[in-house]
Design a protein that fits this description.
It is a single chain. By secondary structure, the chain is mainly alpha-helical. The chain has a single domain, classed as Farnesyl Diphosphate Synthase. It contains 17 helices and 2 strands. Strands 1-2 form a two-stranded antiparallel ribbon. A hairpin with a 2-residue loop joins strand 1 and strand 2. The two termini are 28 Å apart.
């Protein structure tokens, strides 16, 4: 994971600025940005969805059944949308980006299936998770199937450069997940280590999804790197907001059980901020609940109270806003266009979304 620490870091705002950022911003702004992006690549997205459905098919009945459950649960297809829009922004006129967008979605979905098993999650996007319905064994094996389908699509594309980008991202995601396991229940984890976790488990695929858009367009290395940087910063902001929402949203808004991170002892920035700001009694609470995993029913409310008292949500969202600004800055290498404008708006969406 050492290479992850070398990725560009945005300049973060002072903590005092964090107070102006609310934990839940208006839904309309985020939905408008995403809707504009969907409209721009509507034909490509429909073709991508057809590719996804076709490649989820199998003679083994349980595979399409479980896949259909995932499709029914919804999802915004943000990562494949970024692949499609990045390619179009780079002037690409072919169809390779469609299969690669589907490939990105397969990698993402496979990691979700595996994550829900590891985390013992019961909800995904507000519905029963696949492992809750079909069991852990089926979820792991179908996740493996989707990874295999992703690599079939990579091979079909025929570009070793594309294969290298997406294969490296897949390995990095696994590294990030393992690093998260190592930091779980460990309050000695510092913010740098925490950021390494989310660069690996979340930002790596965002970066790859964007970078391949430049590669299929045969754009210069500087533009491919700019899109990789954009994706990295988007992914960082996305995960920071997810971590904030776990302590600042209700279950209906979040689409999963609120407080999952707390119950699992995950080390996230809201917890690190509250622990650092706490007195000895408050730190003792965090050590008992997070490090020792000794939790009672009122503990989640107490955790959310302590997080609110030190504005840990505001601090976390300020970090996310800084990454979103860095993402927009990375796009300045590209000429103005409706695609660049829409991708910039999506950077803001990552901070303003509520689920």
């Amino acid at each position: 994971m050492g290479a992850l620490a070398n990725l560009p870091q945005p300049v973060l705002p002072e903590p005092a600025d964090a107070g102006v950022i609310r934990a839940v911003s208006p839904r309309a702004k985020g939905e408008d940005a995403l809707s504009r992006l969907v409209a721009l690549v509507a034909d490509d997205l429909q073709a991508c969805n057809r590719t996804i459905v076709a490649n989820m098919n199998s003679e083994v009945a349980l595979i399409p059944q479980l896949a259909a459950h995932l499709v029914a649960a919804g999802g915004k297809r943000i990562r494949p949308l970024l692949t499609l829009a990045s390619a179009r922004m780079c002037g690409y006129q072919g169809e390779r980006h469609i299969d690669l967008a589907a490939c990105v979605e397969f990698i993402h979905t496979a990691t979700l299936l595996h994550d829900d098993v590891v985390d013992e999650s019961l909800l995904r996007r507000g519905l029963a998770s696949a492992n809750a319905v079909f069991g852990n064994k089926a979820s792991v094996l179908v996740g493996d199937f989707l990874f295999a389908r992703a690599f079939e699509l990579m091979v079909k594309d025929g570009s070793l450069k594309v294969l290298a980008i997406l294969a490296r991202a897949s390995a990095t995601i696994a590294e990030g997940e393992v690093l998260q396991l190592q930091t779980q229940n460990d309050l000695s984890t510092d913010e740098i280590r925490y950021l390494d976790v989310i660069r690996g488990k979340t930002a790596a695929l965002f970066a790859a999804a964007c970078e391949v858009g430049a590669v299929v367009s045969d754009r210069p290395a500087a533009e491919a790197q700019a899109l990789a940087d954009y994706g990295t910063h988007i992914g960082m902001a996305f995960q920071l907001v997810d971590d904030a929402l776990d302590y600042a949203a209700d279950q209906a808004t979040l689409g999963k059980t609120v407080g999952d991170d707390f119950r699992e002892g995950k080390i996230t920035l809201p917890v690190l901020t509250a622990y650092a700001a706490g007195n000895e009694e408050q730190r003792s609470f965090w050590r008992r609940t997070i490090e020792d995993s000794e939790q009672t029913d009122p503990d989640l409310d107490r955790a959310m109270q302590l997080i609110a008292e030190c504005n840990a949500i505001g601090v976390t969202l300020a970090r996310a806003a800084a990454f979103a600004e860095a993402a927009k800055s990375a796009l300045q290498i590209f000429p103005a266009s409706v695609y660049r404008e829409s991708l910039e708006a999506v950077a803001d969406y990552t901070v303003n979304r509520v689920s």
